[in-house]
Every structure is written in C-alpha cells, then in structure tokens.
Design goal:
By secondary structure, the chain is mainly α. It is built from five helices and three strands, in the order ααααβββα. Strands 1-2-3 form a three-stranded antiparallel beta sheet.
Length: 160
C-alpha cells in the first residue's frame, strides 16, 4: 500500500466525519468543541497535501493534464463541497450581520449588536450559536474534499 492509498483512506474517513459534524450544526451545537479539535487533522492534512503538490508539481500537472478522471463522482463531490462552502459562508454572514457577540449571564441571553448589548431570547441565542458552529465547520468540508480528490487522483495515476 503506497502513501497515497493511506492518505486517501484518511481523507475519506475525515471527510465523512467533517460532513457529519457540520450537518449536526443544523440541529445542535453540542459538537462545537469537537469541531475546534477537528481543525487539527484538517490543517495537518491540508499542509501535507500542499507540500506534496509542491514537491511533485511537474508530475502532478502532467498527470492532471492527461487524466480524464475529472468527470468522476469524486470530482463532482469536490465541486459541490466548494460551492456549498461558499454558499454556507455567505448565508451565515447574512444571518449574523450586525451581531458582534453573544453571551449568557445569570441565565439571560445577550447579543452585542453594533456595539450595544441587548437581551435576546433563548431561540435567538441558539440560532446565532448554530450559525457560528456552521461557519466554523463549513470550511473543513472544502479543504478535506480537495485533499480527498487529490489523493484519489494520485492513487489512480500511480496504479495505472
């Protein structure tokens, strides 16, 4: 098993975990701390991938020019992941525009709106918390998706 097989399997598992954690952000923000911890392997994988592309740039560009696998399911998934990440970022920014921070004091919920603290309901507090969670976890989908596609392409090109 070459190193690209190992990185492909790791990327696939990480992609599934990242998507599941992100989707949980539509229901609950219980996994918020886990999403912060999940950034560590995502950043590590992305850095390793960038250095691998840099070190093998000539081979990679030649393989990608000759490679006809761009119409694969994984390529479509990667494009959808990137488009969703941009959509998620724009939608979340629109939902929290004007909100600088949220907090809870003495079982009351507050939001700082344009520098002024005002009391908000529990439902609004939850909504803003979930939006923050989805903004945090949404970018990981694109990063891991691109790495997954790269390692799958490298694995296939070395096996053929």
């Amino acid at each position: 098993m070459n190193k690209y097989n190992k990185f492909y399997i790791f990327s696939l598992i990480l992609y599934i975990v990242v998507v599941m954690v992100h989707l949980s952000g539509y229901l609950t923000n219980i996994l918020y701390l886990f999403a912060w911890v999940l950034w560590m392997p995502v950043i590590a994988l992305t850095v390793v991938t960038v250095f691998d592309i840099k070190n093998n740039y000539a081979k990679v560009t030649l393989e990608f020019k000759k490679n006809t696998r761009f119409k694969s399911f994984l390529f479509v998934l990667c494009v959808i992941s990137c488009v969703y990440t941009v959509y998620n970022m724009i939608a979340c920014f629109m939902m929290i525009s004007g909100i600088d921070d949220i907090s809870m004091k003495d079982e009351l919920y507050y939001a700082i709106v344009d520098g002024v603290e005002k009391q908000i309901s529990y439902d609004e507090y939850t909504k803003y918390s979930l939006v923050g969670f989805r903004m945090l976890s949404g970018h990981m989908i694109a990063f891991v998706g691109l790495c997954l596609y790269y390692y799958k392409s490298r694995k296939l090109s070395l096996n053929s």
